[in-house]
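## tool: complex_structure
## caller: assistant
## args:
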Amino acid sequence: MSATLGRVLRVSLTTLGGLIFVSVLVYATLSALKPASEVLAVPLSWLPSTFEWSNFALPFTETPFARYYLNSVVVGVSVTVLNVVTCTAAGYSFSKFGYRGRNAVFVIILATLMVPVEIIYVPLYALVFQLGWVNSFAGLIIPAGTSAFGIFLMRQSIDSVPDELLEAARLDGAGELRTLVSIVAPVVRAPIAALALFIFMTNWDSHLWPLLVGADDAHRTLPVGLAAMQANNLGSAGVPMMMAAALLALLPTLLLFLSLQRRFVEGVTMTAGMR
Amino acid sequence: MAILSNRTSERSAEVDPADPGRRGRRRRRGIGLSRDVIGALLAVPAVVLFAAFAVYPMLRVFYLSVFDYNLTSDPEFVGLANFAFLATDSRFHEALGQTGFYVLGTYGPALILALVLAQALHTKTRGMGLVRLLYFVPVAMSWVAVSVIWRVVLHPDGLLNQALSIDVNWLTSSSTARWGLVIMSVWKEMGFFLILFLAGLQAISPDLHEAASLDGAGSFRRFWHLTLPLLRPVTAVCAVMAVIRGFQAFSPQVVLTGGSFETEVINLFVYKTAFENARMGRASAVAVLMFGALLLLTLIQLRAFRRRDR
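## result:
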């Protein structure tokens, strides 16, 4: 009896807390749909008097929002593809071959895992500046083209691929690249998916680096563009547009997360597990 | 360390010479590429990117910390002057204080809340998956978008004030802005640690709890004497990640308070020193100090959590 009561209490309390958590998002969504005069009304009215769906067009008509969005997609997808390719190849290399120096290189890569990338931004910027990559997609994409986490994750995953499988492929005359693409990659597709999801979401959130190397209008990604839009629209007249822009900006990662929850949770626990 | 074990696979010379792949192998040997060479080549793209954009800058940050450097002229050696400057710079000390406040204020409550909620949500009750999702959602959102939304939530006539029937001007003074930041960040980050704690709880065998139950241990005793000690490795990881994530904070401060001095954390201080005042050497010196501090904090945390294992 008391166990049932405890369960009911537990479910209701956690549900209530969860609803309070998402109320912020509901509030943001409804604010995006209100006429500007109603967004900060006292007392608070949750529902708009009229649903202004056209507010969602404002970021596109009033600011270069579409440009920022496209930039973010291009950078996010490129960085993700690059990471999947470089990390899978490196993971295969570190896992299944016995050349000299392999472990030393791997240990150096592992050792950098604890260091937040912000710490190296000054010399990294100086390097990218010297390469002439400031305000270019190269500067946004190439330095983020591989990750210690990804290399570690792929090596761990490929370790579990049986050597017999690889030998069989070689006996059939497949080269190493061919073995990697058509035998190894399909076996470790789940970790690859977790890696891709994790890299994309992290990159989508990236703000400081794109602010340094892509601050001009043509190369601004969403975080940089949104922050600039915010700074230009601090009055309440801009609130519906900014809410709409923020919601549109978080939509891709939110949808990815909702459809690939399990992979995402794996990604988080694996990032933590290797520290 | 198991991950570093040498798992050398067979070399081609050890393969049965009668195998049908022999012709192909001989051809490869003909152009001088043995299997291991090809294997090593596969790591080249990652290693080159890594060396250029991670290892080199990491070494360079130590080098630059003893120079005066503004990006366009040659670095000028100044010894420990950058560090001496930081030792007496009140703005830097203020930034340290803000960072400390932000890390403790955000991640202390976030970790405790996550641990308690993980207990409540670790059950097979139907529908709990959906409830968990409510808490996870902020984790999947970008910091800047979240901050844009919270500017409105923290507005004097925004959701927070009206929901609590209070009248606080959150973002206009340092005494309230830092709390506004903390409230938002707990909301954003709690779910991340909840994921880790839930994963940790799932790894604990239910038999242990059953046995403790039969021995007459109540739910609080089981939590304190069983769950908590078994979760210690997860807690250690969470604590380390909390400190690192807290030190990384940049976007919320920039968007919520416009990067004003009110909430200037270390990362903002470095950003302004390096890129607004062109003091690359001085900013590198801060990075070196951060590097040392993080390393020390991580070691202390790992040690503290390990010692009680014995």
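## assistant note: The two ends of chain A are 43 Å apart (CA to CA). Chain A touches chain B through 116 residues (CB under 8 Å). Handing back to user.
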